[in-house]
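If you are new to this repository, start here. Below is one unmodified record pulled from the training split, so you can see the exact layout before writing a loader.
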Amino acid sequence: MTPDRHRAKPLPPDDRRQEIVKAVIPLLLERGSGLTSKEMAEAAGVAEGTIFSVFPNKSSVIIEAVKVTMDPEPVRTAISQIPTTDPLERQLESVAGILLERSARVGTLVGVLRTLQPDGMEKPEGAHRFVTRSNTAILNALTNLFERHQNDLRVEPERAAVAFLGFVFANAHPLLLAEAKPGAAEIVDMLLRGIAAPGLEGDA
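And here is the target side for that same chain:
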């Protein structure tokens, strides 16, 4: 008797959801809403019916993918691994790169979700609270980084962190053309040095 290649190892529902989402995120980023539930199942190594035994529909899979992508823990871990001996500018360029990549992934997945719910996307229950907690965790990690360089700042570390996040999040706005978006190094340069030409302040 040939074994069923789709028969997956039994897992608790929460673990099964995590495995499915982890497997389909790369495909969602690549294929978008064209990804079928059958292809999701193949990527996760489960039968198609298994997906809908733990998720009510395709949209709920993508909502969970957005939540996983917005999880602040990978960002906090990545920030903690940036060498503290690097100059502040280099550390911030590393952080900007991490956050820009995260924002791009989240933006892509939200865009996929909107194509499946074109008549107005209802926010999942607790979405605002989740986003707030996620952004607060990242803000705290950035504040800790700036606190190590407090003597080099003319504003409080938390204000510097807020300004930095503002630059990065504005850069992720979907109405900005890709070619108009500054990269990590340019974001950091404008944050640290401003946009005014040298001597302009003294001319005011």
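Two things worth knowing about this chain: The domain at 58-193 is CATH 1.10.357 (Tetracycline Repressor; domain 2). The two ends are 85 Å apart (CA to CA).
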